[in-house]
Amino acid sequence: MKRTIWVIMFLCLGTSCNKWLDVKPQDGIIRDNYWQNKEQLQAAVIGCYASLLDNSLVQNLFVWGELRADMVAATLNAAIDEVNIMEANILATNYYTSWAPLYRTINYCNTVITYAAQVMETDKTLTQQQLDAYLSEAYAMRALMYFYLLRSFGEVPLQLKATSGDGTLEQLKKSSQQEVHAQIMKDLAFAEQHAVETYGNVITDKGRITKYTVYAIEADAYLWMEQYDNCIAACDKIINSNRFGLMDGSAQAQWFNSVFFTGNSNESIFEFQFDQQKQNPFYFMFGAANNRFIGSPRVMDEVYGIDLIDATKKDIRGDGGSIRAADQMIWKFAGASSGTTMQVRGATESYAHWFVYRYADVLLLKAEALAWVNKGQEALDLVKVIRDRARALVLTERTPDPLSPVDVSSYILEERAREFAFEGKRWYDVLRNAKRNNYSYLSIMLDMVAMNAPGNMQQSILSKYRDVRSHYFPINQYELQADKLLEQNPYYQ
Amino acid sequence: MKTKDSLKRLIVFLLLLCGWGSCKKAPIISDTSDQVNIIGYLEKNKAQFSDLLKILSTTGDNGFLSVYGAYTFFAPTNDAISAYLKATGRPSIDKIDLQELKDLMKFHLLEDTLTTPSFSDGKLPRLTMYGQYLITGASNTGGQTRITVNRQANLIQSNIRVSNGVIHVIDHVLVPATQTLAQTITSDPKYSVFAEALQATGLYDTVNILPGNNPDSTKQWLTVIAESDSVLAAAGFSSYAALKARYCHTGDPKNVTDSLYLYVRYHILYGIKYLADIVSNTSHTTLAPLEVVTSKLSGLTVLINDDVFNGVHEPGVELDRNTSDRSASNGVVHSALGHFAIKVRNPVPVYWDVADFPEIRNLPAYYGKQNYPFALTNMPKDITVPGPSAMTYTVGGTYVKGDFLAIPLGGPGRSPWVELKTPLLVRGRYKVWICYRTQKQSGSSNNVNQISIDGEPLQRSMNFTVNMPISTEGEMESQGWKWYTSPASNNWAGRLVGTIEIRTTDRHLLRFTTLQGTQNNNNLDMIHFIPQDMDQLYPRFMADGTPVPRP
Q1: Domain range for residue B394?
Q2: Which of B14, B120, B367, B379 to substitute to test the interface with A, most A CBs within 10 Å?
Q3: Residue B302 — φ and ψ, nearest 5°?
Q4: Whole-angstrom Cα distance, residue A114 to residue A134?
Q5: Which residues from A are below 8 Å from B276, CB to CB?
Q6: Closest partner residue to B140 among A8, A300, A463, by Cβ?
Q7: Residue of A nearest to B296 (CA)
Q8: What letter would DSSP give residue B114?
Q9: Three-state SS for A163?
Q10: How far apart are CA A127 and CA B238, in angstroms?
Q11: A456/B143 Cβ within 8 A
Q12: Of residues B329, B328, B325, B333, the one with CA closest to residue B148
C-alpha cells in the first residue's frame, strides 16, 4: 500500500519539475543577456532601420503624403478606405489612420536610447563617441517618425521611453503640436552633434543616418514651423559640404536608372533601402496589372505639360521619370528602365527605394525659405537649377515677381510637384503652404481640392477642407480604446 | 485498517486536488449580439432623446425600430424638437396631429444603412419612408464644418452603428417640402414672369401632381430650371407679355407646336436632378420633345448648354448654387443665371477623323509618329470594346493626318464589337459613310459589320476587306461608294451604310458589330455624317487633313 502512495506521489511530481524554476525562453535572448557588447548595440540600431522597411510603414507614408493631394488617381482596384481618403470621408475606423507602424519604429529607437549606455559597462572597447553616434541614429530616426506624425495627425502622444513589456505600457495624453515639434528639434540637436559624416561607403551613407540626413530633417522641420533663417542655415550646411549634387539629366535613361531604379545616387541623402530580399509593396500598388493607383490625368496635362509638336522636348521627370504617359503608371516605383525602352518592374524586382530626402529637396526647401525672407531672386535661381537639370518645358515656366513671397513660393510649390511626384511629399507641401501665416493661403489647398473632387461631391468636400481641423487625420478607433487618455481630434468627434 | 483509511483519504485528497481549479462555471452566451438596436440606443441616451422616444411611441414606430432590420435614422435631439415646436407655435408634442407626426418620423427614416461616406452634394441614394428625398451637404460656419441634411439640420454625431441600422444625430427636425414644383415657383415673387408662362402654357398642372398620384411614371419626379424676373429682364423680357410676343408664334401658348410652350417645356427635365446629379451627366432630356440640355462642371460653376459646336465655343448659362437645389414635393427647382431657349440649328456635315482624340494627342511620341497599341485598361474614354482585343493607333499607311485605327473584330480572340462616341450631331437626316483602308489580314479574311447608331441598325452592312468597284463617280455613288481621299486612291474606300434620322442634338453612340468573319486589319480612318441633301462626294481629304472642295 505504501508503495502505491509513493508511486502516485512520484507520478505527480515526475512530469513537472524539469525547469520550473528556470523561466528564460529557450529560443531567444532576453534583455538581461543583451546589451553586452558593441556588436549587439549595432545590431539593435540596424534593427531600427529594418523596421522602416515594413510594408505598412511605406504604404502609410505614401497614402498620407499623396492621396489627399492631386497627383494620384485611384483605379477600380483601390480599397474603399483609400477612396474614402481621396473623397475626404475619413473616419476613425479607416485602416490608414493607424499610426502603429511608426510607433513601432519609435519604440525600437526608444529601446536603443534607453539601454545603449549599459553596453559601456560591459564592453570596454566601446567609446563614448561611438555610443553617441549610435544614439544619434536612434534620435534622428525617432525625430523623423514624429515629424511624419506631426504633419499627419497634428497632436500625437509623445512616447519617449521604451515599452519592453506589458508592465511598462503607459497611458499617454496627446502633446500639442509645439511640444511635438520641440521634441523633434531636441532629438535632432543631439543627433546633429554626434552623427557621423560618413560611414566610409556610399550604400551605408545613403541608408543610414549621417549628419546630412539630420540637417535635411531639420531644414524640413524648420520650414514647417516657418523658421526660415534656421531652415536656410541647415540647407547651407548640406550644400557647402560639397558631398552632394544633382545627377545629370541629359540622358533620361541613365538618370532614371541611377536616381530611381538603383538608388543611392550622388543626389540622395537618405533612402529606405529595399532590396531583393526585402521588397517594397509597390508592385501591387502601382506596377501590377490590377494596380490600385495611377497618376492623375493632370500630371501629364498640367504638371509637366506636353509639347504637342516636338516629342523630343520633354521634362525628364514626366513621361519616363515619374509616370508613364501612355497609361499613367507610377513609373518612379514601377519602372525598370526609361528613355527609349520603358520596361516595367516584375513582381520580383519591386525594390525601388523610398526617397526620404534628395539634394533637390534641400535646394527647393532653401528656395522656399529664401522666398519668405525677401530673397526672391536667389530662390528663383535655385528653381532654375532644378528646372535646367530636368529640361522642364517652357510652358511650365513662370515669371513671378521676386519681391512677392507668395508668388515665388507658389511657383516653388509647382516645381516641387514636378520634382517629387509620388514621393509622398505633395500633401505636406500643399498643407505647409496653405497653413503659412496662420492659414493665410488656404485658397491654395481649396483650389487644388476643387479641381480634383468628383463633381457630385465637390461642394461638400470643399466645405470640409475649409475647416482646417480636417487637415489632420483622426486617431484610429483601436488606439482610442487602448489608451483611455487619448482624445479624438475635435473635427472627428 | 487505520493505514488503509488514511490512505483512502489521501487518495481522495489528491484526486480533489487534481480536480480543483477546473470546475469554475463557464459563462454561456445566449445572445447573438450585445449591440443595442435603434430604440435601445435612444433609451440609453434618454437625456438627449426623451422627446423623440415619446414621439416614436405615439406614432407606433418604436415597434419596428426595436427589432431586426436595416434602417438609417436621423435622430433629432430634445433641443431640436423643442425648437421645432417653438417654430411651429405648438405648446407640446401631444398637440400635434398624429398623421403629421407619423409623416415627420417617416421623413427621418430610410430603409437602408447609409453612412456618411455615401453622402454627396445631392440626394441620398434612397427615398425616405415618407417618399421624398433627403439631400446632404456640408457647410462651414466660423471655420467649423458640419455635414448638413436637407439644408435644415447639422449632424452632431454620425455613423452610430446599432444592430438594426445606423443613427445620425441631428440638431434640427427635418421637415418635408409641402409645396409642389408648381406651387414653389408661383409662390416665389422672384419667378413671377416664369410662373405666368407656366400657367399660360397649361404646364402648371404637369408640375403640380404629387408623385404618388401621377399616372405617368416618367413624370413623377421632375426638375425645373426656372429663370427669375431679373434674368428675363436682362434678356429683354420685362414682362410676360414681352416673353409671349417673342416666342408665341401661333398665338396660343397651349398649342404643342407653339414656341412658348416648347420654351417652358425645355426648362423641365425628366427625373429629380439636384446639381450633383446634373454635373454627373453630360446631357439631360427635357419635356420638349427630343431636345436635351447639356451640362458640365467648369471649376466650381455648373454650366448648362456650354458647348463647342463646329469648332465654335458657345458660352453656357450658369446655375446659381445658392438658389438652386430647392426641394419640392415632386422634384427640385434650380435657378438659371441667364436666359436660355431651344437653339434652332440646321444640320451640318461632320467629317470625323476617328484617329484624333485627346488621349493619343497627349502622347506626342506616338501621335502621327508611330503605332500605339491600346490595352483594354487604357482605352480612350470615347471608344469602347468588350475585349478580349483592344485596338492599335496606326501610323505609316497614310491618309487623313497619316493615321487610322486598326480594330481587331470578329470571332474568338477578338472583340465582337466596337463602339465610338460621335462628335456633336445636330438633329436631322444624315447619310453615313465609313471611310477605311481596304486590307485583308490573309487571303481568306473577311469582316462584315453592321453599323448601328444608338442601337438602331443602318440599312447596309460594310466589309473591311472589300475593295471599291471602280467606275465613274456618279455610278459609284449610286452603288454607295466614293473616293474620300485627295488624290483619289482606290485603296481607301468610302462606303455608304445608310441614312439615319438623328433625333436629338447630342453626341451619339455608333457601333460596329461583326456579323461574319474575323481579322485584325480593320483600318478605320474616318466617318462622315453628311446631311442627305448636301454634296456627298466632296470635300475629299488630303493626307495632311486639308479638305479639298469640289473642283
Answers
A1: 350-548
A2: B120
A3: -95, 120
A4: 12
A5: 455-457, 459
A6: A463
A7: A455
A8: -
A9: coil
A10: 93
A11: no
A12: B325
Reply yes or no on whether the pLDDT at B353 is more than 60.
yes
Contact yes or no for A351/A280 (Cβ under 8 A): yes
- Phi then psi for residue A177, to 5 deg, are -60, -40
The CA-based angle B192-B196-B198, given to 5 degrees, is 115
Q: What percent of chain B has pLDDT over 70?
A: 97
Please report residues of B whose CB lies closer than 8 A to that of A467: 140, 143-145
The CATH number of the structural domain formed by A38-242 is 1.25.40.390
The residue whose grid cell reads 509639347 is A307
**Which among A217, A267, A203, A257 has a CA at the least distance from the CA of A419?**
A267
- To the nearest whole angstrom, how far is the Cα of B366 from the nearest Cα of chain A? 8
Give the lowest-confidence range in A24-38, A273-287, B67-81: A24-38
Distance from CA of A154 to the nearest CA of B (A): 17
Q: Of the candidates B271, B263, B11, B119, which has an alpha carbon nearest to the alpha carbon of residue A2?
A: B11
Q: Is residue B30 part of a domain?
A: no
- Quickly state the pLDDT bin for A267 (edges 50, 70, 90): very high
Of residues A5, A328, A466, nearest to B7 (C-beta):
A5
Residues whose CB is less than 8 angstroms from the CB of residue A47 and which lie 6 or more positions away in sequence, other chains included = A108
How far is the C-alpha of A367 from the C-alpha of A412, rounded, in Å? 8
Mean pLDDT is lowest, of A106-115, A148-157, A381-390, B364-373, for: B364-373
Which residue, B170, B190, B221, sits at the end of a domain? B170
Query: Same domain, yes or no, for B111 and B245?
Result: no
Residue A311 is nearest to which of B122, B145, B364, comparing CB atoms?
Answer: B364
B76-105 pLDDT, tens digit per residue, is: 999 999 999 999 888 888 888 899 999 999
pLDDT, tens digit, for every residue of A1-48?
566 666 665 555 555 555 566 677 778 788 888 899 999 999 999 999
Q: Could you tell me if B146 and B220 lie in one domain?
A: no
β-bridge pairing B331-336 and B222-227:
parallel
- Contact assignment for B122 to A467 by CB distance below 8 Å: no
- A21/chain B closest Cα distance in angstroms: 21
Contacts of B332 (CB under 8 A, 6+ apart): B181, B223, B224, B272, B273, B274, B325, B326
Long-range Cβ pairs for the range B265-269 (8 Å, 24+): B265/B201, B265/B203, B266/B291, B266/B293, B266/B340, B266/B341, B266/B342, B267/B194, B267/B224, B267/B225, B267/B226, B267/B227, B268/B203, B268/B206, B268/B207, B268/B222, B268/B223, B268/B224, B268/B225, B269/B222, B269/B223, B269/B224, B269/B225, B269/B293
pLDDT at A166 (0 to 100)? 78
* Entry pTM: 0.84
Instruction: Say if residue B522's pLDDT is above 90.
Output: yes
Same domain, B190 and B164: no
ipTM for the assembly: 0.79
CATH code of residue B482: 2.60.120.260
Nearest to B116 among A80, A89, A491 (CB): A89
Average pLDDT over residues A107-123: 93
Number of domains in chain B: 3
Question: Residue A379, class by beta-carbon neighbours within 10 Å (0-12 exposed, 13-18 middle, 19+ buried)?
Answer: buried
In order of A90, A93, A223, A473, A490, the CA distances from A81 in angstroms are 8, 9, 31, 13, 21
In A, minimum Cα distance to B17 occurs at A12
Residue whose C-alpha cell is 425645355: B266
B23/B2 Cα distance (integer angstroms)? 32
- In B44-92 the beta strands, taken as DSSP E runs, fall at 71-76
- For range A408-422, the mean pLDDT: 96
Pick B139's closest partner by Cβ from A306, A311, A463: A463
Domain segments of chain A as ranges = 38-242
Cell numbers 519604429 correspond to what residue? A105
How far apart CA B96 and CA A149 sit, in angstroms, is: 53
